[in-house]
Amino acid sequence: MLTTRHGVRPLGAADLADFLALSDLDPVVNVFVDHRARSTNLEPRWLGGEVWGRYVDGRLVAACHVGANLVPVNASPDDARAFAERALGRARTVSTIVGPHEAVRAFWQVVSGTWGPPRETRWRQPHLELTAAPAVEADPRVRRTTRQDLDLLYPACVAMYTEEVGLSPEAGGGADLYRARVLQLVSRGWSFARFDGGRLVFKAEVACMSPHAAQVQGVWVAPDRRGEGLATSGMAAVADIVRREIAPTVSLYVNEWNTPARRAYEAVGFEETARFSTVMF
User: Fold this and answer.
1) b/e sequence 183-219, b meaning 16+ C-beta within 10 Å
2) Where is the N-acetyltransferase domain (predicted)?
């Protein structure tokens, strides 16, 4: 077995079973990396990056997804520091570090002097899960979107992303790529919305899924319709469809300061199970 400093080495297709077993130790928190591993077979050409594993006594104990998103997997602070030391040996290519708070913080403490300053940091984001039927009535007007909805859906996706991230996904010529991503989610049946009077007033998407969970992203309500409960009943509808047709558990993470969103998710029945952190460049 080829190893490097601190027992860290790149993983490949031959390591898929070990990686999935590691991910299964916390399958809902790890839904993103589980989805990436299953859909790419850990092949770098499909990953658009690498997945690193850390071995102790020949056993895989932690991993780190290194693509556009850098995501620690079941990493202790010591594991995260080992991954960070490997990361310092290469130029920063990631746009976001995201994952469980303690691992992200430990990683960032090592690389911040070289990789900083970040555009924004969000240090304590509640990670939420729903494992039962929604606690409120679902909005019957929420449905899966189709390609015919794109003229209304795409501007809402751009608005949500810009509001959430502070930067338009179309910046720097990214419109075609982002539009393709929106279409991909629509074609998978992972895009949901409610339309009133010829306009989109609520939307959400599934970002990734595994046999264990589906992670929801992009929850958005038209600004002039906020405060009406559309997010609560809309998320109940999305969660109901997702649990019935995609995966048994629905997860998401939310900014700590977003009180309206947190109240809506709590009303639906989501419960906090972890804290995430995000560092954006």
Assistant:
1) eebbeeebbbbbbeeeebbbbbbbbbbbebbbbbbbb
2) 140-281
Contact by Cβ (8 Å): 117, 163: no
Q: Are residues 150 and 268 in the same domain?
A: yes
Q: Which long-range contacts (CB under 8 A, 24 or more apart) does 163-171 make?
A: 163/220, 165/280, 166/119, 166/120, 167/119
> In what helix (H) or strand (E) does residue 268 lie, and over which residues does it extend?
helix 259-268
Look at residue 1 in the predicted model and tell me its pLDDT.
38
Q: Pairing relation of β-strands 120-130 and 143-144?
A: unpaired
Please provide the DSSP assignment of 83-106 as one string: HHHHHTTS----SEEEEEHHHHHH
Q: What DSSP string runs through 174-187? A: THHHHHHHHHHHHH
- CA 152, CA 236: separation in Å to the nearest integer? 22
Element at 163 (helix H, strand E)? helix 150-165
**Residues 217-229: tens digit of each pLDDT:** 999 999 999 999 9
d(CA 80, CA 206): 28
Residues 112 and 161 reside in one and the same domain: no
The whole-angstrom separation of Cα 151 and Cα 136 is 30
Confirm whether 132 is domain-assigned: no
Residue in this structure with the two tokens 């992303």, named with its chain if needed: 161
Domain membership of residue 42 as a residue range: 5-117
Do 150 and 249 share a domain, yes or no?
yes
